[in-house]
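[Meeting: bench + compute handoff]

Bench side (C.D.) handed over the final construct sequence. Compute side (W.E.) agreed to return the predicted structure before the next meeting so the bench team could plan truncations. Sequence as handed over:
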Amino acid sequence: MSEYVQYLHGMHVVRDGSRQAPPMVFIHGSGASGTTWVPVVPALAEHHDVVRVDLPGMGHSGAGTSYDVPTQATRVADLIDSLGVGPVTVVGHSSGGYVATSLAEQRPELVKAIALISTGPSPGALRPQPARLRALTRPPLGRLVWALRSDNLIRRGIRVTCVRPVDIPNALVAEVRGLPYQTFVTVLRHNGEYIAERSVPDRLSKLDVPVLVGFGAADPRWDPASAHEYDLLPNGRVEMLPGIGHVPMLEAPETTSKLLLDFTAPGR
């Protein structure tokens, strides 16, 4: 497995695996970075050209001019065009699944298949959030907490969305620490607007693309039962992950890798 880092269209991109292998593009969730996918990269890079993206304003990418979902998807499309790797299997975690869906809406020729990991389908599926997370999204207290956040607080914030013990990469903690508060809350607002306008299952039902939905059966952020809103997709497959919370790639990397490899296996 080889790793190559570059910047394209102001976005930080990391590639692993063979350039001759089928490409997979990985998109992280709100406030995170491509580092969230690190635990699943070794297994996937044995079979795929693995491309991990830091969305605008997050990770090591430069600030965006807009953080609405369609604009972020356009930036990812430009990146895929520049890499010359399309069509791709695009994998989105949480709100990264909204960017993956918007990418397929805008540029269906670039998307071979979509895998959504812990992607809430509609606003009503959101569970009541822990006080620690609610406080972060409500200024002025949220801005103050964000300014004073320590590495330990960041780790606790990530772990509250998990139900299994997780090893959080130091690089991910550092990247979250560098995220401006206003960028974080703006991204969250635009994500909510995207699914309020139309649910993800409704958007995907208009597209002719295979869809995998992987959902932690103990997800504390989104109601696990809401995963079945995706059952209406004619080319969809819903997989519930027992004993797993909102971040399967950190909580159960082997299970997550196998799920994705099975989905992308030739002749599936």
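W.E. noted at the follow-up: The first strand starts at residue 3 and ends at 8. C.D. will use this when planning the next construct.
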